[in-house]
Structure formats: structure tokens, C-alpha cells
Amino acid sequence: MHSNRLGWLLLAPTLLVLGLFGVVPFFYVVWVSFHQWNPFAANPDMIFNGAENFRRLVFDEAFLASLGATVSFVFFAVISELVLGYMLAQAFMKDFPGKGFFRTIHTLPLIMAPIIVGSVWKLMTTPSIGIIPNLLDSWFGFDLNIGQSAAAAFIVTVVMDVWHWTPLVTLSLIAALVSLPQDPFEQAQIDGAGKRQIFWHVTLPMIAPAVLATVFIRLMDALRTVDEVLMLTGGGPGAATRYVGVHIFKEVFPRTNYGYGSAISVIVLYLTIVVCWLLYVGMLAPRNTGKG
Amino acid sequence: MNLSVKLGASALALMLAVGSAFAQDIKVGHPDWWKNAGAKFDGVTLRGVTEATPPSNYISDVLAPAFEDLTGIRVEIETTSWDQMYDKAIKDMEAKTGIYDMVFIEQDIVYAYLARDFLVDFTAELKAHPDLKAANFDEANLTSFADNFRGKDGDLFGMPMEAFIKVYLYRTDLFNDPKVKAAFKKETGHDLVPAKTHAEYAEIARFFTKWGKDHDMKLWGTTAQAHTGHPASWYEFFESVAPTYGVYNWGINPDKNYAATVAHGGSMNSPEAKAALKWWLEMRDLAPPESVQSTWTEVATTFAAGRAAQGLVYGENAAWIASDKNKSRVVGKVGVALPPLEDGVMADAESGKGYIGYYDGGAFGTPVTSKNEEAALLFLQFLALPEIQEDWAAAASRITLTSTYDTPKVKALDKELGGYYTMMREDGKLFRGAPPYPFHAQVREATAQILYKVLTGDLGPDEGLDQMAAKAEEELQTLGYRE
Known about the structure:
The structure holds 2 protein chains of 2 kinds.
Chain A: H1 2-32, E1 35-36, E2 47-48, H2 52-58, H3 61-93, H4 99-107, H5 114-125, H6 131-140, H7 150-178, H8 183-190, H9 195-223, H10 227-232, H11 244-252, H12 258-283, H13 285-291
Helix pairs in contact in A: 3-7, 3-9, 7-9, 9-12, 11-12
Chain B: H1 3-22, H2 31-39, E1 45-51, H3 54-71, E2 74-80, H4 82-95, E3 102-106, H5 110-115, H6 122-128, E4 159-171, H7 172-175, H8 178-188, H9 198-214, H10 232-241, H11 271-286, H12 296-304, E5 310-314, H13 315-323, E6 334-337, H14 345-351, E7 357-365, H15 373-383, H16 386-396, H17 408-416, H18 420-427, E8 431-432, H19 440-456, H20 461-479
Parallel strand pairs in B: 1-2, 1-3, 7-8
Antiparallel strand pairs in B: 3-7, 4-5, 4-6, 4-7
Membrane topology (chain A): Multi-pass membrane protein
Subcellular location (chain A): Cell membrane
Main location (chain A): membrane
């Protein structure tokens, strides 16, 4: 009883901070999402409008387009990061000259603030001035113009995200790979399993929890990408890279559409939870059931 | 000497170096009055939030410490990004938290703040506290830009601290080059002089883009602030180009129930607006490739890099483009002129019916939620003292008092800038800030998406303007301004 009370007492500051800065704002956003509220409207008051904001966003072409663009962005970015991250993690598991140096260098993007990443990539990709369009032009005669080509802008945002976040995946997977016991690998080799078979039937199942955790983190991060993209393309050209985070930013900040912007945030949070749950069920639940 | 002593000495040296770097000798008239006025606010700290621009940085680094020395009132100025600044200021005023005693008010948002009664009436406050009226402060000395911060009864709600006009810059070295002049005359049959009409401007732009190509030079005929995802392009069209075609106030007519479409009495999709957009799109195509990613900053950089022969450039950049050798390749090669116009627009501007371009800038105002309104009143007057203006203008190329034009440093700078300050003084009245709408950012954001589609070619200019006008009316209806 005594230790229970002490436990709660020790947890109290954390719970208080979590409640104040996490739970309360969340419920406030939910509350606002049921209102029409624009402080610069003729009537700046919060007006309760039931589920109208949620009904509206189902038919909002701009929102649906941003959601579609976000799904594509997340899919390509997270898959690329996972594949590249795994390959790099495997490479760093082996010994080679300068391994420590390369491992340090490859984590540097992680310590850069997203806004800086966006600025640097903007400098590198500005049509006709940036180093990347210049090199592509002189090597392949390819005109990279992210201010005009929707496909080019989309690809560059994906590449920028991959460049920024692959090291995180690499580090997570290195940690997972290092902790794996050697016995199953030796047994599989004795049984004559090939590299591919070992990967699918031994390595992957054993690192699945780490992969899933990493995917969750990257998925949630990628879904709420704002700073980098806003800095690089501003959501353009047109609405090509107006991902849902950028869309929410533009609704809530410049347009001060607090009610509707909150509704979009709530829906995006719900969708994120659903996607994560589906991933969990698809990847881990069968494994756990099998064990049980 | 042990490590901690060394570290301490280094820190002290660094502090002294930083302090002396910002220290400036600011002498203000009636120092005793200021000292006595400040004594009433012993222990008060004024807090302000502003955008990190050269004029604001000067306030933070130079003027705030000088004011503190003079009055004993501490001033903390938070300089941050444009959107962060608005976010913080609006949330503070909306939630009535009273964190800030002074907020930066960009000219285009002041009407939204006034509509919400966010700001203290400076004129009324000064009348209510005659003991706080500084002898060396004179409201009549403010330039006409201050009119943008007045309420309906003419009272001042913000103290102007930066003001610029968006001007037509051109390269004097190219325009005066005999070889170029001869080639231009041969090709067009006209003399090469700064354009007065859109047709002349387009002719010059076409010539220089071709000239750059033919001579393998990184030179284009014009700049274009035509970002395909940033509101800078929206601003260039509606505040700099459309007015020169006679489409004022974004084509929205407040007298006709805030109509934007021609059908309802607006002019956003008028033939003039459509002609303006087509002209601007042609200029965008003649501009350097980076123009599709250019905001106001990149336009200035493009011009400073010597990549454009002419362009519409915000005045806040004109000074460094023309005079800062560390940042600009065209120092001493910059001329200033009024923007090209259609027939009748100058007459409209002179009669007050219209305007020829954008008068940009901002002010410092006090939120009604401030807990230190009276102390803030002193600081706002301090920002408008003639004694501090000359160095401030030299450091940040901004002028808000008429008397500043006659100071030696500004006169010298005016020569370097090709007469920019003279133009601002004599023709400033022909320029105007954003229309007095309380729904500025809301309508801009609602319609900008359509403009971006026009810029990417997904939508034609005529169709785009029709859609923008309809969208503006829809947004105004949603906001409750249009019935």
C-alpha cells in the first residue's frame, strides 16, 4: 500500500506535465473541432456546429487531395527508408576500414532541424541555381524544376525525407541486429538455408518488433511533415506537395480557420491510429497468437 | 590559471565584445524628462514580439538598450519568424493573456486587428496621459504611411517603424551601354529607357532575355515573384501588377457587398485583371528559371546577382542591392523608376481613386491586454523620435518620419540608391498598402490555391480569375462579411 502511494507520488510530476501539455490540449482540439471558429470572421466567437466540420471535410477536394498526396509520400518515404536503413545497418554490422567515421557521418542529418533541412534542400534544388539541377543538366541534360513540375517536387520531397530520416532507421535496426542471438543463424546454416531464406525466416521475424516500432515512428512523423516541405516547396507547385500537415498549417495559421483545422487534425490522428493498428495486427499479432 | 578561471575570463571577454558590438551612441533630447517619466515605472519590463527583420533587429539590439539606459524601463524584444510572430501575437491577444506589451503589426493585418479591437488607441491614450507626452515627439512628423495605422476617426493605433515602396529597379550599366542601346534601337525602333507602360516593359524584357541567350550570359529581361506554392506570387499579382492595370483593392468592392466578380460589381475577373495576369505570366516566362520558386527575398537576390535587367523589387531590399558590395554584384549599377502603368492609372493615383504600387511596412502597437500600457506609450514615442531616425534609416533603409529625409546619411544613401528615398518622399503618396480589409489572410489563402494552378499551367488565366473571384465571394460569405 505504502509503495503504491510512493509510486503514484513519484509519477505525479510526469502525469501532471503529460496531462497539462498532452491530454488537455488534445481534448481542447476535439472540442474546437465541433465549432465554427475563425477569429477574423464577422462573428469571431466560437459557434457550436455539431459534426458540420467533419461532414465538410468528407467533400473537401483540397483536403482529400492532400490526404492522397500524403499517403503516396508516406508510402514511398517510409518504404525507402526501411529498405535503405536495413541495408546500411547490415553494412555497419560488418567490419571495414573507416567504419566508425562513416557511422558518425551518416547520422549527421538526424541532428539537423527540419526547417534547416528544408532550407538546405531549397538551396540545392532551386531551378537553374541549385547544385542538383545544375549537375543533372550537365550530366544528363535533365531540367529539374521543382517549381513547375509536380512529379519532380514530389520526388524531391521524398528524397529529402529519406536523406533526413534513414539514419534513424539504420540506428534502430543496428540495435536490433546486434542483440540477436547467433544460435538460430548457425542452425539455419547447418540446415542448409540460403541467405534469402535466413533473412525471411530467421532475421526478419526476430527483428520484426524493432521494424514495427521504427515504422510506427517514421509513419507518424511522415504523416505530420510540415517544416521541411513548407520550406522547400510551400506545398507547391499548385498543391502537389501540400501534404496533410502543410494543409492543416495553412488552414489553421494563415487562414485562422481554427474549427475546421482542428477537425482535420482529429481525423488525421484517427487515421494514423487506424493505420498503426492495422500494421500491428498484420505484423505482430499473428506472431504473438502463434506463440500463445 | 585553472580551467574554470579561463572559461570565466573567456565568457566575460565574449560578453564585452558582444556588448560593444551593439553599443551605439544615441543622444536624445530632454533626457531628464525621459528619466523622470521612466521613474514612474520602476521595475517594469516591456515585452514585445516582432519579425526578425533588419529594422526590428535594430530595435532589439540598439534602441531597446538605449531606451533602458534613458528611462530605466527594461525592454525585451523577441524577434522571430513571420508566421511565429503572428501566431504568438494573435494567440496572446485572443486569449487575453497579456504577455506582450508591444506587437509588430504589418500593414496588411492592421485592419483585422482593428476590427477585433485588439489595439490600444495611441492618440487617445496620449491625450488621457498628457504627463507622458514627450516634448520631442511630434505625430505630424510621421510620413503618410502612418495613415495605414489610423482608425476611422483618424487616431493612431500603431507607431510606424518600417516603411518601403515596391519600386521598378533597372540596371543602369545595361541601359546606358552604347552597344546594348544600339542593338535595342535596331531591334525595336525605340530608345532604351526605363519603361513607362507595360508594353514597353515587355519589349525590354523580351530584348534582354534574348540578349542573354544570344551572348551566353546568365541574364534575363525581368524578375518575377512567381512562387507556385507561396503567397508571395499572390501578392505580386494583386498588390503590384493588378493595380497598374487599374484593378484596385484586389478587385473586391466593399461598396457592393464585398463583390469580387464582375457580375456582382467587383473587378477581380474583369478584362483589365485578365490582361494583367496574361502580361505577368509572359513576364514570368521571360524571367530567370528560379522565379517559379521566388518570394520577395529571392527576387531581390536574383536582381542582386545580376541575373535580371529590370524588375519590381521591394524597397527594403533596394538599399542593400544598390550599396552592399558583400551581398550584391550590381552596386552602383541600379536605377529606380515608378512601375509601368496602363493609361489612366496615374490619374487615378493622383486623384486618390487608385494607386500605382504597394507601400509596404509595419508598426509597433500595444495590445489592449497589455499590463503596461503607459510604459509602452513611452517606448512607442521613443521609436518616433527624430534623433534616432538617421542611424536607423542607414542601418535598415526604412523611413517613417518626414524629417529623416533631410538627414546627411539618408541624403548620401539616396544618391547611392539612384534616388529611391527622393522617390519615396515625392511619390510615396501614389503608392498604397493593402486594402483595409479585416479578412486579409483568409481571402488570400482561399484564392491563392487557384493562382498556383494558373502558374503551373493547370488552369488558364481567364478561367483562373473567374474561379478566384467566385472563391473570394464564397469565402467572404462563409466569414460573414458578404450577405
